[in-house]
């Protein structure tokens, strides 16, 4: 068919983009390896070994706690399908994905810090407080659980609600108790999501940077990412940074390979509507309600603390400062450009992958599976190449280049942000493209619709909504990132997270509160309003 | 006798209530017909206890069921899909009906539904018709007096459907069950039902 022959337009840009991304990864590896020269990785000094062990340890603990808590919360929410504000609460928990990490850390300090709400409350009640207990392993775990448990709970809730109603009715009619229901009815539907979420959370915590940088407190609690940063920025010890980067790269590659059998694409967070029919016993109802209430308090109080302190900080004065305006403009430019590039890249990658996966297109060609796999790999590069390792690669290139440093900073930050958003963007756009193809390909081809007609008349109405969602997601992730900027940031190249980090480091808490509030409001506004502005349809609810 | 008297249920206040009255004797099959969304399955949810009626009574041999918990109503249910837990073996699926059942009892029951020797097979390995037979064998093992069928034959081919309809008839007769079958197919109703009801305009009327 003519339409099938013209499909190269659909796959060639995607294949070129995928090859470009994979080529970039190889180039980065070569740059690091060449610069490392005669470094020996075989003998690790005790300090490096400690950093590696602690990185693995905190990631493992964070994963266990996040998955456990996320599962409990999802279980409670799934079995309490009707209470006022439930949808809002679920949307709020889902938003943890786009909350700027540094803002979350600031909020947690506002609650659990030396002068936080908990200590203030204890002092008011008993005249004594807990002192400084946040910094160290506790703080790292707390922040990781805050960000990941809430996000994971959304994916688990989706799995709970996808269990057919008949299964619940059957279990109830067979007299199952809560535990039997969980093992026989719910766990089989949940386990794939649990393992895949655990693998993703482990990788994210393993490469966590901003949280450990601020809440780690001392070298005892350094992870590899933070150790790389300190080696470059504080100790100017490039050989050490290179050694750590290569270790990090090797470990993440092994972890990505090991976890690839567990990891499925990150769940597309669509609103769920299914409700489980099950009359719980009174004790279980109270347990579920208690869990929801406790987690809500845990999640909401840091946000409230940011709002309270931010409002009190004299926002008007802060926003009039030239340095704030510079940081804001740079952040907006970075976020908008990153989001547009992500959108462009995810569309060409997903379109190409769809062409190789659909039997109605090129799915039967002998190389289709290989190309499809390469595209998937290129879209998930971020998981294997942590930000600081990537940043170090760019840093080395900049050192030996005649190009201005600021230009390298822009290239590095945009590349890192796009790669960071791509796995999430692919998880949203690709399934939607597949659904559209499965439903309309045969009809479109049989009607002889051209590529342009197919895209604008058939696909765009269904893609518009998810494209807006991806734009908002990439915008927020880029806006809040404190990764590459930690290596390239300076007085003349300042983003909001870097500015906030500087304020927090110099104990200017009032100004920091104002900046944190602006970042929070900006993220929430874009994440909520952009997808609403563009709307869009769901293929399954035509 | 299963006696349902002026049972009513309202989903939305602005809509009229669904009203049901019917009788089913032991060893009888009552077929409830009607179009999609007419309220047929709501009746089964009310009998099983998944929904609580606003008014009316559900009595089995004079005993009121409407305030009893689901597991104490003496009800077995068969749906169109999802009657088995796919990750469990046939024997384990059946034993969920009665934990103390012996291996011999399970083997005998499987023989009765024409699936002798299938104990160790995974439920996911069975065809649609075989899955319905396994679900029916669990019904037999449970020995509950009421059997509710929520269009369980809709996805089956004609030959398999006919065989399973006959099996339901046989089981109902032999074990004196009170069977209520929801179907949109009048042929199914003609095939095995002793009483036929039509759900129309929110009301159940005998045919």
Question: Can you describe what's shown?
Answer:
- The complex is a heterodimer of chains A (542) and B (207).
- Chain A has 542 residues and is an all-alpha fold.
- Chain A has a domain of 269 residues: MetI-like fold.
- Helices cover 76% and strands 0% of the residues of chain A.
- Chain B has 207 residues and is of the alpha/beta class.
- Chain B contains 6 helices and 10 strands, in the order βββαβββαααβαβαββ.
- The radius of gyration of chain B is 17 Å and the shape is globular.
- At the A-B interface, helix 8 and helix 9 of A face strand 6 of B.
Assembly state here? heterodimer
Characterize the biggest β-sheet of chain A.
none
Radius of gyration of chain B: 17 Å
Mean pLDDT score of chain A, rounded?
A: 85
**CATH class categorisation of the domain at 1-38 and 312-542 in chain A:** Mainly Alpha
Helix coverage percent of chain A: over 70%
| CATH architecture title of the domain at 1-38 and 312-542 in chain A | Orthogonal Bundle
What is the CATH topology assignment of the domain at 1-38 and 312-542 in chain A?
MetI-like fold
What coarse outline of chain B follows from CA principal-axis ratios? Answer: globular
Q: Identify low-pLDDT runs of chain B.
A: none
Q: What is the rounded distance between the termini of chain B?
A: 19 Å
CATH homologous superfamily assignment of the domain at 1-38 and 312-542 in chain A: MetI-like
Using CB atoms under 8 Å apart, which protein chain pair has the greatest interface?
Answer: A-B, 14 and 21 residues
Write the layout of secondary structure elements.
The complex is a heterodimer of chains A (about 550) and B (about 210).
Chain A: H1 2-5, H2 8-36, H3 46-79, H4 86-94, H5 101-112, H6 117-126, H7 137-161, H8 165-173, H9 178-206, H10 210-215, H11 224-234, H12 238-259, H13 282-311, H14 315-319, H15 322-357, H16 368-379, H17 381-384, H18 387-399, H19 405-446, H20 451-479, H21 484-488, H22 496-505, H23 509-534
Chain B: E1 2-9, E2 18-24, E3 28-33, H1 40-48, E4 55-60, E5 63-64, E6 75-78, H2 90-95, H3 103-112, H4 128-142, E7 146-150, H5 158-175, E8 178-182, H6 186-192, E9 195-200, E10 203-206
Parallel strand pairs in B: 3-8, 3-9, 6-7, 7-8
Antiparallel strand pairs in B: 1-2, 1-4, 4-5, 9-10
């Amino acid at each position: 068919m003519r339409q099938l022959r013209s499909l190269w337009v659909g796959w060639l840009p995607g294949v070129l983009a995928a090859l470009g991304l994979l080529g970039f990864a190889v180039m980065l590896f070569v740059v690091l390896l060449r610069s490392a020269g005669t470094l020996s990785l075989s003998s690790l000094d005790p300090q490096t070994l400690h950093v590696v062990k602690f990185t693995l340890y905190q990631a493992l603990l964070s994963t266990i706690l996040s998955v456990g808590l996320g599962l409990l919360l999802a279980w409670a929410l799934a079995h309490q399908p009707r209470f006022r504000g439930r949808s809002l609460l679920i949307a709020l928990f889902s938003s943890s994905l786009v909350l700027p990490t540094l803002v979350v850390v600031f909020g947690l300090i506002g609650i659990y810090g030396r002068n936080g709400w908990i200590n203030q409350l204890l002092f008011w009640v008993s005249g004594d407080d807990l002192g400084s207990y946040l910094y160290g392993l506790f703080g790292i775990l707390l922040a990781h659980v805050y960000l990941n448990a809430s996000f994971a709970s959304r994916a688990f809730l989706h799995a709970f609600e996808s269990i057919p109603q008949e299964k619940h009715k059957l279990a109830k009619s067979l007299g199952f108790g809560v535990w039997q229901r969980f093992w026989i009815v719910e766990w089989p539907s949940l386990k794939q999501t649990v393992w895949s979420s655990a693998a993703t959370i482990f990788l994210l915590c393993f490469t966590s940077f901003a949280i450990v940088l601020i809440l780690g407190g001392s070298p005892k609690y350094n992870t590899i990412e933070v150790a790389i940063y300190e080696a470059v920025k504080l100790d100017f010890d490039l050989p050490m940074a290179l050694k750590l980067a290569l270790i990090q790269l090797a470990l993440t590659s092994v972890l990505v390979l090991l976890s690839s059998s567990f990891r499925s694409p990150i769940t597309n967070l669509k609103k769920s509507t299914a409700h489980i029919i099950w009359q719980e016993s009174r004790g279980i109802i109270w347990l579920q309600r208690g869990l929801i209430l406790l987690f809500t308090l845990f999640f909401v109080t840091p946000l409230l603390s940011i709002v309270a302190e931010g409002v009190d900080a004299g926002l008007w004065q802060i926003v009039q400062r030239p340095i704030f305006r510079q940081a804001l403009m740079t952040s907006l430019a970075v976020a908008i450009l990153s989001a547009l590039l992500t959108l462009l890249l995810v569309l060409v990658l997903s379109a190409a992958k769809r062409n190789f996966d659909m039997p109605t297109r090129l799915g039967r060609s002998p190389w289709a599976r290989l190309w499809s796999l390469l595209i998937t790999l290129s879209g998930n590069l971020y998981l294997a190449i942590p930000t600081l390792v990537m940043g170090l690669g760019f840093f080395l290139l900049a050192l030996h280049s005649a190009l201005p440093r600021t230009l390298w900073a822009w290239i590095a930050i945009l590349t890192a942000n796009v790669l960071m958003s791509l796995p999430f963007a692919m998880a949203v756009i690709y399934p939607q493209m597949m659904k559209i193809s499965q439903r309309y390909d045969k009809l479109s081809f049989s009607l002889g619709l051209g590529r342009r007609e197919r895209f604008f008349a058939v696909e765009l109405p269904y893609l518009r909504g998810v494209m807006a969602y991806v734009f908002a997601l990439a915008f927020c992730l880029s806006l809040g990132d404190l990764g590459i900027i930690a290596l390239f940031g300076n007085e003349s190249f300042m983003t909001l997270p870097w500015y906030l980090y500087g304020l927090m480091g110099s104990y200017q808490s009032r100004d920091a509160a104002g900046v944190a509030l602006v970042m929070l409001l900006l993220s929430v506004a874009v994440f909520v309003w952009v997808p609403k502005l563009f709307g869009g349809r769901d293929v399954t609810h035509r | 006798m299963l006696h349902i008297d002026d049972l009513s249920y309202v989903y939305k206040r602005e809509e009229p209530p669904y009203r049901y009255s019917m009788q089913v004797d032991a060893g009888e099959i009552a077929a409830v017909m009607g179009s999609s969304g007419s309220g047929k399955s709501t009746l089964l949810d009310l009998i099983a206890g998944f929904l609580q009626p606003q008014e009316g009574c559900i009595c089995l041999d004079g005993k009121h069921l409407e305030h009893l918990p689901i597991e104490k109503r003496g009800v077995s249910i068969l749906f169109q899909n999802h009657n088995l837990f796919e990750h469990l073996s046939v024997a384990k699926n059946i034993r969920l009906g009665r934990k103390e059942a012996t291996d011999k009892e399970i083997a005998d029951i499987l023989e009765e539904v024409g699936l002798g020797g299938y104990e160790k097979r995974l439920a996911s390995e069975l065809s649609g018709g075989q899955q319905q037979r396994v679900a029916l064998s669990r019904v037999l093992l449970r020995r509950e007096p009421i059997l509710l069928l929520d269009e369980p034959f809709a996805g089956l081919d004609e030959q398999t459907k006919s065989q399973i309809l006959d099996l339901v008839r046989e089981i109902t007769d032999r074990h004196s069950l009170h069977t209520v079958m929801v179907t949109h197919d009048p042929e199914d109703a003609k095939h095995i039902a002793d009483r036929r009801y039509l759900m129309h305009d929110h009301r159940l009327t005998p045919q």
